[in-house]
């Protein structure tokens, strides 16, 4: 489904210095996989997931999605693929406090480039019911719990029916019990709906639950197991 070939990512530091965040990454992601990206802070985990999700472009190398070389696409085409193909869940819930839970979930559909073939409101309400948020759809993010906020963020990530869900430290801001609930929700999405999920984590106990693990150290892929 996704192939990264000889990917490098560099950032300029000052006028004459470069920071190499990722070195020569080669990775293939197949449909229906459950993968964790692990490694210490600063190892390049978030950079890698930003590249996979087309939030950033590599300095060198090729990212192929469903046999399409994304390096040949313009910004509008990249945005369209990103909005329809990938759902994002972050450690910070990134909800908009002025919008209701339902309105937050519907945001990706509002920005969709093409007319959807289904009702996003119906899809959002189905997710609200599935994730135990029924009765909260007209509440605001600052009026619900952290676990409910993260469920809302996951529902928002799924409202466009993406093929890939990227979760960057999705339990990092939650207490242990709530974090386990969110993790189980993600595992069930992979198991029952065959959704491809990549989880970035520094927690070995979370990585242990995934079927494949990719370990980064200092921007280099040191293991795939």
Give an overview of the whole structure.
The protein has 225 residues and is of the alpha/beta class. It has one domain (32-58, 74-224): Rossmann fold. Helices cover 33% and strands 29% of the residues. It has seven helices and ten strands. The protein has helices at 45-52, 75-85, 101-110, 120-130, 146-158, 176-193, 204-207; strands at 2-13, 17-29, 34-38, 60-65, 68-69, 86-90, 164-168, 196-201, 212-217, 220-224. The strands form two sheets. Strands 6-7-8-3-9-10 form a six-stranded mixed sheet, with helices on both faces. Strands 2-1-4-5 form a four-stranded antiparallel sheet, with helices on one face. Strand 7 (164-168), helix 6 (176-193) and strand 8 (196-201) form a beta-alpha-beta unit. Helix 3 (101-110) packs across helix 4 (120-130) and helix 5 packs parallel to helix 6. The longest helix has 18 residues, at 176-193. The mean pLDDT is 94.
List keywords for this structure.
225 residues; globular; Rossmann fold; 6-stranded mixed beta sheet; alpha/beta; 4-stranded antiparallel beta sheet; 29% strand
């Amino acid at each position: 489904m996704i192939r990264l070939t000889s990917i490098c990512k560099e950032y300029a530091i000052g006028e004459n210095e470069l920071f190499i965040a990722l070195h020569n990454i080669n990775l293939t992601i197949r449909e229906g996989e459950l993968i964790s990206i692990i490694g210490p802070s600063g190892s390049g985990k978030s950079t890698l997931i930003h590249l996979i999700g087309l939030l950033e472009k590599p300095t060198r190398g090729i990212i192929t999605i469903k046999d399409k070389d994304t390096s040949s696409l313009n910004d509008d085409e990249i945005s369209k693929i990103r909005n329809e193909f990938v759902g994002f869940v972050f450690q910070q819930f990134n909800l908009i406090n002025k919008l209701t839970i339902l309105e937050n979930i519907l945001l990706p559909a509002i920005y969709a480039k093409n007319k959807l073939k289904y009702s996003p409101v119906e899809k959002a309400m189905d997710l609200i019911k599935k994730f135990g948020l029924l009765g909260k759809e007209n509440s605001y993010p600052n009026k619900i719990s952290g676990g409910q906020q993260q469920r809302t963020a996951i529902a928002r990530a799924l409202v466009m029916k993406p093929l890939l869900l990227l979760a960057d430290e999705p339990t990092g801001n939650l207490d242990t019990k709530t974090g386990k609930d969110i993790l189980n929700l993600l595992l069930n999405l992979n198991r029952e709906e065959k959704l491809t999920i990549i989880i970035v984590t520094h927690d070995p106990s979370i990585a242990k639950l995934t079927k494949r693990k990719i370990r980064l150290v200092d921007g280099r892929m040191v293991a795939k197991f």
